[in-house]
Design a protein that fits this description.
single chain; 365 residues; alpha+beta; six-stranded antiparallel sheet; 6 strands; globular; disordered N terminus; disordered C terminus; DNA-binding; WRKY transcription factor; nucleus; WRKY_dom_sf
Length: 365
DNA sequence: TGAATTTGACCCAG
DNA sequence: CTGGGTCAAATTCA
């Protein structure tokens, strides 16, 4: 709701903070993974680092998401808006999308006729859903489809004049919480390694209170392989063209090969439409991010609201959450992309119109 | 066995 | 009428 709008410079700070935090944590994690048992002087576990990274980026994404959604008629991503997408202060979109029609669900198809869709039942679908027309949407192009959110694929279509199919995802909590967020993912024509993701609507669900089992359960020793497998198992993948490996094959979208990652170093992350981001920040690449982070971490790491957006929740009550995409343990293979992404994002992409380096003292606070 | 994905049909906006 | 967004039964997976 409008009362939660934040000022652009505050938003900019928070965005920068989240990115810097993620990058810093990723760096730490890399060190930790390179020398999992060595003396790296780290007192924080890989799981905790992964959690920090995910929290940072989820926070940042949420900032972009919520702010852009609140400013649909401008380039609102950086123009302020609600801080969190955890449902606080965010009213459902004024879209009559599906509405009550979701309730019919299986009932009409239950019973002896469940094997086939009967014509009468299908007729009842008429008028039951309206395609969202005016939803806030924004597009990103990244070498990964991962965004720290929980998505469930509900469709895939061949698109005219497009070499690659488009996959449709909805929030996994659509049924539980009526979250209307959806996204569409499609490989870009000119570079199949890049995925254009169009986000439609914003998350209205609260997914932050689910206990992150991976963090909570510290009884198990750090296991890199399980981390990677966990990621793969927890990651939505798209069977584009049917020649891409699926996640169980170990080379799916969520887990690019190292060779691919090297090539991806040239990739540029872009956020279009809502987030107008230029390359001006390249001049700011000389940031001493550690100093910057040191300035930030005391400020907001202790902020309870940070934890609220933890994406690392697991579905309670399930002994295996292979489908719970909201938990995306930070894998080794992805840390490189993360580094790349963060580098690209920070170095090339961010341009906060009101950004003032004075706001980010590089020395002491 | 429950949850996620696949896939073909349905439906609507343009 | 067509393209594309969504539904939901069937299938797959862990």
């Amino acid at each position: 709701m409008g009362t939660c709008a934040i000022e652009p410079e505050i938003l900019s700070k928070k965005l920068m903070k989240g990115l810097v935090q993620g990058r810093d944590s990723a760096t730490q994690l890399r060190t930790l993974l390179c020398k999992p048992f060595g003396d790296h002087g780290s007192v924080i576990s890989a799981e905790e680092l992964a959690e920090k990274i995910l929290t940072s980026f989820d926070e940042t994404i949420s900032l972009l998401t919520s702010s852009s959604s609140d400013n649909s008629d401008d380039h609102g991503a950086l123009n302020g808006g609600d801080l969190m997408n955890d449902g606080h202060g965010i009213s459902p979109e004024p879209l009559d999308h599906h509405s009550h029609c979701d309730d019919r669900s299986s009932e009409e198809y239950s019973g002896e006729s469940s094997k086939k869709r009967s014509a009468p039942a299908l007729k009842d679908r008429r008028g039951c859903y309206k395609r969202r027309k005016s939803s806030q949407s924004w597009t990103t192009i990244m070498p990964t489809i991962e965004d720290g959110q929980a998505w469930r694929k509900y469709g895939q279509k061949e698109i005219l004049n497009s070499q690659y199919p488009r996959a449709y995802f909805r929030c996994t909590r659509k049924n539980e919480q009526g979250c209307r967020a959806t996204k569409q993912v499609q490989q870009t024509q000119d570079n199949p390694k890049m995925y254009q993701t169009t986000y439609i609507g914003q998350h209205t669900c609260k997914h932050i209170l689910k206990a992150p089992q991976m963090i909570v359960d510290n009884s198990e020793p750090y296991n890199f392989e399980s981390l990677v497998n966990n990621y793969k198992a927890s990651t939505t993948t798209i069977d584009f063209d049917h020649h891409h490996s699926r996640n169980k094959n170990g080379s799916g979208i969520g887990a690019p090969t190292l060779m691919e990652e090297e090539q991806e170093q040239d990739q540029v992350l872009m956020i279009k439409e809502e987030a107008q981001i230029s390359e001006d920040l390249s001049e700011k690449s000389s940031f001493d991010t550690e100093d910057l982070w040191s300035d930030f971490k005391d400020i907001e790491l202790s902020d309870p609201s940070m934890g609220l957006l933890s994406p690392n929740g697991r579905r309670a009550g399930t002994d295996h959450d292979q489908g719970t995409v909201d938990s995306i343990p930070f894998s080794f293979v992805d840390r490189i992309s993360m580094d790349i992404m963060v580098d690209d994002f920070v170095v090339k992409s961010i341009d906060f119109p009101d950004f003032d380096e004075a706001e980010f003292p590089l020395g002491s606070a």
